[in-house]
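Anyone up for a design puzzle?
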């Protein structure tokens, strides 16, 4: 029992490597935690990142189309840079029509729809006023 105070080379080597691996594990763990960026501002991927801000500009446009079958479409819109006012509509060869007048400003989007499309009725969903003059008889008998 002379060797009770001494360690065997294999035992000392084992504990030595265990301490080294423990130290490396702790260092890499701390590095991983400190290096993790966490949640970001969502500026990566599609649509993220810097987008320049341009001041609003006044504009206006419009068009009107009529084909050889009697179908008509139109759209008009103008803006002072803060408020958008417009209208669009169509009338088909059978006289079915939809006319929409709209405003978009600091109070949101508001529209008034006038139509005689079959299956419509007077209603006011989601700040849109629908005024229908649709015939409510048998389908196909609206002329």
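Challenge accepted. My sequence:
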């Amino acid at each position: 029992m002379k060797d009770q105070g001494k360690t065997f080379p294999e035992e000392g080597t084992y504990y030595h490597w265990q301490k080294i691996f423990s130290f490396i594990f702790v260092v890499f763990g701390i590095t991983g935690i400190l290096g993790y960026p966490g949640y970001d501002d969502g500026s990566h991927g599609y649509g993220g990142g810097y987008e320049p801000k341009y001041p609003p500009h006044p504009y206006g446009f419009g068009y009107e189309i009529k084909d050889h079958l009697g179908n008509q479409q139109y759209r008009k819109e103008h803006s002072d840079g803060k408020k958008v006012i417009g209208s669009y509509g169509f009338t088909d060869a059978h006289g079915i029509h939809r006319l929409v007048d709209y405003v978009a400003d600091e109070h949101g989007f508001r529209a008034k729809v006038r139509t005689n499309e079959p299956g419509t009725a007077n209603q006011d969903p989601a700040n849109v006023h629908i005024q229908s003059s649709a015939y409510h008889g048998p389908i196909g008998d609206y002329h």
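A detail worth pointing out: The mean pLDDT is 80.
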